[in-house]
Structures are given as structure tokens and as C-alpha cells.
Amino acid sequence: MSVPDYMQCAEDHQTLLVVVQPVGIVSEENFFRIYKRICSVSQISVRDSQRALYIRYRHHYPPENNEWGDFQTHRKVVGLITITDCFSAKDWPQTFEKFHVQKERYGSTLYDSRLLVFGLQGEIAEQPRTDVAFYPSYEDCATVEKRIEDFIESLFIVLESKRLDRATDKSGDKIPLLCVPFEKKDFVGLDTDSRHYKKRCQGRMRKHVGDLCLQAGMLQDSLVHYHMAVELLRSVNDFLWLGAALEGLCSASVIYHYPGGTGGKSGARRSQGSSLPAEAANRHRPGAQEVLIDPGALSTSGINPDTSTEIGRAKNCLSPEDVIEKYKESISCYGKYKNAGVIELEACVKAVRVLAVQKRSMEASEFLQNAVYINLRQLSEEEKIQRYSILSELYELIGFHRKSAFFKRVAAMQCVAPSVSEPGWRACYKLLLETLPGYSLSLDPQDFNKGTHRGWAAVQMRLLHELVYASRRMGNPALSVRHLSFLLQTMLDFLSDQEKKDVTQSLENYTSKCPGTMEPITLPDGLTLPPVPFTKLPIVRCVKLLNLPASLRPQKMKSLLGQSVSAKSPFIYSPITAHNRGEERSKKIDFQWVQGDVCEVQLMVYNPMPFELRVENMGLLTSGVEFESLPAALSLPAESGLYPVTLVGVPQTTGTISVNGYHTTVFGVFSDCLLDSLPGVKTAGSSVEVVPALPRLQISTSLPRSAHSLQPSSGDEISTNVSVQLYNGETQHLVVKLENIGTEPLEKLEVTSKILTTKEKLYGAFLSWRLEETLAQFPLQPGKVATLTVSVKAKLDFSCQENLLQDLSDDGISVGGFPLCSPSRQVVRPRAESKPVHPAEGSRPGDPGQVKTLEAVLSFKYSGGPGHVEGYYRGLSLGLHAEVEPSVFFTRVSTLPATSTRQCHLLLDVFNPTEHELTVSARSNEELILHAGECQRMAIRVDKFNFENFPECPEEKGQFASAKQVEEERQEARGLEISNKLDIHWTIPSLKRTGEASVEGLLNQLVLGHLQLAPLLWDVLVDGQPCDREAAACRVGDPVRLEVRLTNRSLRSVGPFALSVVPFQDHQNGVHNYDLRHAVSFVGSGTFYLDKVPPSGQSACLGALLFLHTGDFFLRVRFQEDSPSKELPPSWFCLPSVHVRALEAQA
Questions:
Q1: Nearest CA among 253, 229, 244, 254 for reference residue 346
Q2: Closest Cα partner for 428 from 452, 412, 449, 405?
Q3: Is the torsion defined by CA of 192, 196, 198, 200 positive or negative?
């Protein structure tokens, strides 16, 4: 026997072999349709008996295997069923003749045969025949199964008769010697009368009867016969047939112990001795369950038919452990014969199946290893493939998955061996796919992201290379690209640098003809190959959604309860809501993107390849919002470290957008890489809210950009920084161009300013503007420009600690009440011993020559379009860096009384710290020219101020302010009022720069007191005219009327007062002459009396003088020392000096 049946199992020993074949030309579809129906009748119960008959059908069976039917009866073809097409009566004789020719091939062993004829109708079809069945068509053949059952019953009748004939053979010495084909020539010339020969004949016949009993459903009888055959054959060293007897004994025992079978077929066999209770089995043959063997009970003349009386020393049914031992012995016996290789191989396969049921994998592997080395005849390529495939299936059956994969791979390689004329690449590819699980490989790259790598990487890479080659030879480049991509993605860590280069080069060659996609590939057998995204080319370690630039970030207009309160809930706080928000916060980010604006996602990537990696068409994968991804292309250097890559896109609609991953094109393979499938990726969140579209504002200015970048304490980012150089007190105009570079109209604009922390005291507003003119151009359509003019005014402290001029008294200038010849200006040169004009470095603030810095932020809040409807706005900040150089300094401030009690002279020492000539002017005063580094004194006549009329601080401010702060604010307000009245300006003609100078911060309490109107206002009138400005003229000899008026501005009543008038003459040399009794005479009393004056009241007293000769006379009004005047401050009694010029009397 040369063709092994690898599907054999122990249960097949109890089956009858029936061959089903076509006669003539029958379509394959029709043949197998009937063949499947025939195969459904594989087990029937014998009538009037508890026995069952099992049938094994084959549609192809080599006739040479049939020659071994005496050796093992289940190999004998006992039934033949032929199927044929016959449509006319004239073809019937020829068809029937073919049927007889077919029977002759198995004629020596056939019990019965049947011919199923389809398509023939008429007289021939109506004739009753037992061996032929006629059917009109393949659809109209309902009785096929019934005909097969009848056919099987006929087989059973023949089988039972043969069993009885063999078992009751009384021919004595004439028991035939059963032989296998290769033994016939060896027995020629043997002594047939020897006891050895007779025992050989008896043992072989006893074994043959055991086979027949097993086929006939008599399990217990077959066990007895097998035991007896073993004893007989062992005694004569008939090893080949001893092996067959042992194998039959094992098969019968396996059938008894494992009624479900060992061949893995669906459905369990119904066996008389297993599925029925023991009592039912014993009813068939009394005592058969405990039948024992006694070799001495064997008759020398033949076989005792009554096996129930044979009681010996061994139990008839083998235990599961003994079954394996007997299999080993049987295979050992077969191994002694070179021509029994097929029998030995099939016995190994049967033993393996039994051990698989017993879950004894290691012992099963020993049997399989023995089967591998069994040397058969020269096998064809197809038979080699079948052998390796069956070995693979058996190794899989016992759990040796890698061993199974090995033989499956050998079978695959055998399909395309060089000796094969037409290589079967499809079969090779299919077998290679089946080896993947055994090598811990799957076609899903997701399985390689779970923990450590499983399996031998070198073997896996070899297998993947073979899959790539096989798919290419199949003519399926898409399959080659998919497997090569899988190899590169999953085995990247195990590839050497050279292998990485080779694989990527091959991949580029494949993708040039068939680009790699993310579409699943479905094979003809239904297997689906999932897509292979290149998540390691490049490797991504961090994904971060970036906020918009500070100037483009949307901000929500705050509601009454605050922005954090949900409008959907009536409660300010809910623990359930807070918990849910906490879960969402794990992936949702707390900033927003804007519809229509470019948004960015930063990826930290690195290139694991030993060469430059070019990544094309890299973009974002999103969901939730319509999103336009703007692909990028990048080139990563070889084995680069972490490298930031920014991917951008534009959300087209509003809602919550989720960044699910990114897509790339590497080596011609398009990949969709999802974040959930990326191992070890850090992300702070992948979802962000997209708010409605807002306009975009771009600002440009007339000032140059600043190298200084402002850093506000609030953390706001400054989009633009400009710088300006000013002199102290100078005002410059900043023109800001507002351009709408977005797609939505700009409808709302708010402008605010903030001065950053500075050590310098700033007087007045640093930045000011008029927004009405700009808002008149709104709404600002896309592409349009509006302008805003901002005034930048730097007014710092003008005081200087250096006293560069001598005091007035040092220069001999009187500080009394005498009039100055030129009260508007007094020029004094610096003294030689005065301090240097330009101090050294490190001087304190207020020193001349020091440049000071001011920084401010101009903030624009704007909105428009759909975003404005939803309550969103944007903010844009302009940083202003101003360097303020000193213009003028006031080194000293003092006052001198004027001729009028309502005026005084303010004396200012003015210093020019610049390098240019500078002019200073005040209201109604001529200009004062100062050269570089020069200091001069100027006197300015000013009206005294009524500070009591100034408004007080608001209640809300004064309520929390200290008394010191309130006083400081009052003093600042007084200083501002004085500066506005003085209106001091400076000009640098060479630079065409001008500005104002302020005395704010310079005026101490004493100076302010001199500049303040006294609570009691005194006026002296000569002939009804005030005499505090010019000299009053009168005639000698004419009486001069003198009136003194008092206005009480205080909150209390004052008086009464007594005043005396003292005339004198000033000789302009420091000598005053008070002896004027011959020159001046009083008309009446020289003492004036004023009654008590209430608050806001007024009182006056009158008198007269008579000048007796010409000249300039001065009248000094003095208060007599009385109690009311002592209670009041001296500053309340400031009376003007009266200058009277007596002229010649008119003729």
C-alpha cells in the first residue's frame, strides 16, 4: 500500500468502506450534491438487533490499497455506488457496460453495488431492478437516502454471513493463510503441515474474525478475538499481523472508552457497548463484558465458535493507559517491515488522535516525531504537501502551535518548490497565513501595542517576508504593500539599520505602483487584513492642543453671576455637575478655538530610522466639527531627538471638536494614526470648544517698534511694542491704524490704557484719545482701515534737589513789601562754588540729566459677527515704551508779596539740563532764554488762589482713605490748579520740540500758604480807587478820602478792630522817614475802627488825609494790639501798602 490516509482514526476500524464514483461525464456540482446526500447516511441501526453499522464513504480510493483488505477489513471496498447521466434509451447499454467495468476494479472485494441513473425515463426506467435506481433529474430524487439505507442493509447481510462463515469454519487444517501483497512470494515452498504454520494461519484468521465482528457491531466479541489473535501471533513471531491484532485491540478499546470519537468529527457515534448501559450490552452476549482468554481452550483443529466459555487470565478491554502502550508495540511491529510504512504512519496518526483526547501532548509528540521519520516511497509534490499539512493539523490538535506552524510553512514552501512545474502561489500564501497564530503573529497591528513582544522576531520577520513575496507572485501588489507595511510597523525594533533601509526601499518600489491605503483588504476566503497605520514613522510622544495667540483668543463677556456658572442650572453649585465636569476636564481643554481661524496642534516626534525620514501630507484627524486640515510636509534628520511639529487647520463650524489623531504619507503609505492606539503618548486633552467667528484686528502705528518687550503683571501678552522718546512735559501724537484683516465686520471697540508699575510720579494723563471719531467709521468691513489718534504726554516731577542759585537775601534783594522794579523776571548767574550741573552716575531720582522710563499698555477690546451675538470678544494690546529726558528743572521755589494783597510773586529757579538752548515762558510773561547747563530765576506775578472753593474727594474714596492721603490729594489738586494758571511752557528751537512745565510736587505748605487768599480780605481805597497796583495821585492841599474795607471769608465772626495809619517816605536807600507831621495831616482821627464782621460779611471805615507839599508818600496801616487781633493768625492781617503821589495844586 503506497497511499496513506492521513484522516484515519481508531473508529474507522468499525466502518465499512463504500466508494462513490461517477460513470461517464457527470458535472462536479451534480456529483457532489448527490455525494453529500449519500454521506448523510453514515450510520444505521440493524433491524431486529441492537447493533449499529457505520459506513465510510470515499469518492476516490486507490485500487492498490484495496489489496490490503484481508490485513485490515476496514481498508476493503465492500460497496460501490456509481452516479451517471443518461438521457436516452440508446445510451443505456453503454452506460450499464461502464458500470460493470467500474465494478471490476473492486470486484474481488465488493459485497454489493448500486447504479444511480439521472435523466432516463421510459420503459427502461420503469423496469424493477435492485442494483439500478432511476431518477428523472437531480432535483427530483427524494428517495436517494432510502435507497442507500437499503443498500447498506444488503452490505450488512453479506458481512454477517462472512463473519459467521469465518467463525464457524470447521475445515481443520485447511484454514487459509491470509497474506498481505508483499508476503505472497515469501511463503512459496513453506511447510504447510508444521505447527508453526498452522498457528500463524489460526492467529491471522482470529484477527480477521475480530475485524469482521467489529464491523458488524459486536464490540465485545471483537475484543476477545483480538486477544486470542495476539497470543497466537506472538507465539509464532508473526510481527506484522501481531501489530495489526494489537492495533485492532486498541481500536476496539478506544471505541468503547471514547464514544464521541477521536477524529474530531461533529456528532458522537452511537455505539452499542458505550451509549447503552452495561446491562443492555450484556443482554446481547451473556457474559461478554467479562470474557477472558484461555489459550489452552483453543482447538487444534480450528476456532472454537463459543467465545463465552473461554475464561483465561487477562481482561478483554484495555485501559486508556494500556491502549497507548499497545499502540507503541503495534507501531514497533510495523517498523520491522519496510513495506508497511503506510500502515505504521496511519497507526501513529491514530495514536496521536487518541492521545489528544486524553490530553497527553508530550507522548503524542513522540508518536508524531516517529511519523515524521517514517520513510515512504518517493512521494509526489501533492502528497508531500498533504503529509506536512496533516502533521501541522495534528501538532495543532495536541497544542504544539509553533511546531504546527513549522510544518504548515514547510507545506507552503512545498507548493512552490523548484520541482513543481506550476507553482501554487495562492495555496502557498493561504498556508502561510495559517501559520501566523503558531508564530504569535496576527494581521492586526493593534495586537502589538499590548505589552511586550511575543514570539521569535527573527522567525516572524522571515515569515512576513515570505508573505510579501508570495503576494507579489500572486499578482496582488496591494497585498504586498500591506504585509511589508506590517513588517516595518511591528518589527521596527528588531530590524538592523541595513534591514530598515532595504525594507523601506522595497516598500517605496511597491508603493510607486500601488500606494498603500487605510482600506481593509478582504481575501477570497473571507479573511480581512486590517489597515496598518505607521504610528512609529515618526514616533509621537506628546500631543498638545495649542491656544490661539493672545491677540486672537476669544473671551466671554462676564455675566451677572460670573462666567463659571452654567446657564442650564438654576443652582450656583451642584456636586453632580461638578463631578461630571471633572470627568470631562480630563480630555476637554479650558480654552476655545474660533471658527474660521487657523488652529494649531503641536506634536513632539522623533525619527527612529538611521536615515532622513520624509513625511508628506501630515494633517489632523478630527470629529465633531467640520474641519479643514492644512497638510504639512516635514523632513526629520536620522535618529533625531524629540522634534516639535505643528499641525494646523481651520474649523469651519462651531461646536466641540475632538482631535482623534493625525494622518501621514510615509514611503507611499497613507496612514491614519489614532491617539487611542498610540502607546505612551502624553496629552493634556483632545477636545476643545469652537466658538462662532470673530473679526480679526491688526494694528500698526506711526512709531517705530521697540526692542523692549513689556511684561505686564497680569500675564497678558503684548502683540506689538513701540517706543517713543519724549522730553519731560512734551506731548506727541500716536496714530494707530486699525485694519480688519478677518472675514467678519468689526462692530464694537473699547479702548483702555494701563500704566505699568513705575517709580516715577506721573502728573496728568499719560495717554488720552477721542474714540468718537473712530467709532464713526464702524462697522468696519473686512479689509477696511480706521485710525485712532492717541496723545502721549509725559509730565513727571520737574523738581531738582540741587540749589544752584543763592537766596534772594544774599543778593541784596529786599524781601519786604516794596515793589520790584521788574517783577516778571530776575536773572542770577550761578555761583562759582555751586555744585556741578551734571551729577555723576548713580544719582538719586530728581537729579538733572537722568533719563526716566515710562511703560504703558493700550488695550483694544473688539467684537463683531456671530461671535458678538454669542457674547465673545477679542483683546489686542499695544505696548508703549517711553524714554523721558529732562527738559527743565525747578531747583527752588519761593514767593514775594506784590503790591496787591490779592497777588504775589512766584520766584522759580529754572535750570536747563539739556544740551540745547531752551526758552521758558509763562502766561503774560516774556520768554526766558536758557543756554545749555544754565540756571536762571524768573518771577511770575500771580493772583492768589481761593483753595477753599476746590471740590472735596468723593465719599466712596474718602471713606476708606487716611487723613494723610486726603491731604496729599488736596495738595496735588492745588498744585494742578496753580500749574494751569501759570501755564509755563518750554521750547527747544533747534529740535522744534515744545512742552509744558509743571510746578506740581514742588510747592510746599509754606509756599501754598503764601499763594492762598487770606480768610480776611483787606482793601484800601484812595478817593474810591484801589491803590494796590499804581500810585494814587492827589493835589497838595486837597483832602484825600481814605477807606478801609474788610471782607470776612472765614467761618467765624471777627472784630472789632482798631487800625492806625502811619505815613512815611522811602528814600530808596534803605532809610524810611516817619517824621512827616509837617507834610501830612489827618482830617479827623488817624485811628480807624471796624465793628464785628459776621461770616461772609463786609465792613468799612472812612477817614481823610491832607498832603501839605508834593512828593511820594507811603501809608502803612497797622493794627492796634487788642484781644481780637491776637487770637487770629498774622497771615489774616495782610494789608496792602498805599502809594500816594502828591502833585502841585492847580492854580
A1: 244
A2: 412
A3: negative
pTM comes to: 0.68
Between CA 293 and CA 297 the distance in angstroms is 8
| Dihedral angle of Cα 390, 392, 394, 398, to the nearest 10 degrees | 180
Q: Which residue has the cell 501809608?
A: 1115
The DSSP H or E segment spanning 322 is helix 320-334
198 contacts 298 by C-beta, under 8 angstroms: no
Alpha-carbon distances of 653 from 744, 746, 869, 1077, rounded to whole Å = 14, 20, 15, 105
The span from the CA of 1061 to the CA of 1057, in Å, is 13
Amino acid at 247: E
**Chain centroid, CA 779 distance in Å:** 39
Q: Is the pLDDT of residue 763 over 50?
A: yes
pLDDT band at 949 (very low <50, low <70, confident <90, very high): low
Does residue 122 carry a pLDDT above 70? yes
- Amino acid occupying residue 108: S
> Are the C-beta atoms of 509 and 459 separated by less than 8 Å?
no
Measuring CA to CA, which residue among 174, 227, 181 is closest to residue 201? Answer: 174
CA distances from 838 to 378, 761, 832, 912, 945 (A): 117, 22, 15, 11, 36
**Which residues have CB under 8 Å from 873's CB, separation 6+?**
554, 555, 557, 694, 748, 861, 862, 863, 867
State how far the Cα of 5 lies from the Cα of 332, in Å rounded to an integer.
19
Residues paired with 1056 in a beta bridge:
none
**What pLDDT digit, counting tens, does each position of 570-589 carry?**
555 555 544 444 444 346 78
First vs last C-alpha separation in the chain:
182
Judge whether residue 495 has pLDDT over 80.
yes
Q: Look up residue 219 and give its three cell numbers.
A: 464490540
Q: What are the cell numbers at 114?
A: 448500486
Dihedral-angle region of residue 426 (phi above 0 means left; psi in -120 to 50 means alpha; beta otherwise): alpha
Biggest CA-to-CA distance, the chain: 209
Q: Are 307 and 225 in contact (CB under 8 A)?
A: yes
Q: What angle do CA 3, 8, 11 make, to 5 degrees?
A: 145
Residue of 320, 392, 407 whose CA lies nearest to 360: 320
Amino acid sitting at position 152: I
* Cβ(486)–Cβ(522) below 8 Å: no
Strands 643-651 and 687-691: unpaired
704: its cell numbers: 517705530
- The C-alpha cell 505612551 sits at 680
Q: How far apart are CA 201 and CA 178, in angstroms?
A: 7
Residue type, 391: L
User: What is the strand order of the sheet 682-683 is part of?
Assistant: 627-630, 643-651, 599-606, 539-545, 682-683
Output the pLDDT for position 564.
39
Determine the Cα–Cα distance for residues 94 and 100; give it in Å rounded to an integer.
10
Q: For 864-902, where are the E strands, in sequence order? A: 872-885, 889-897
Q: Chain-wide mean pLDDT for the chain?
A: 81
How many residues make up the chain in this entry? Answer: 1147
pLDDT, tens only, 603-617: 999 999 999 999 999
Cell of 1064: 512815611
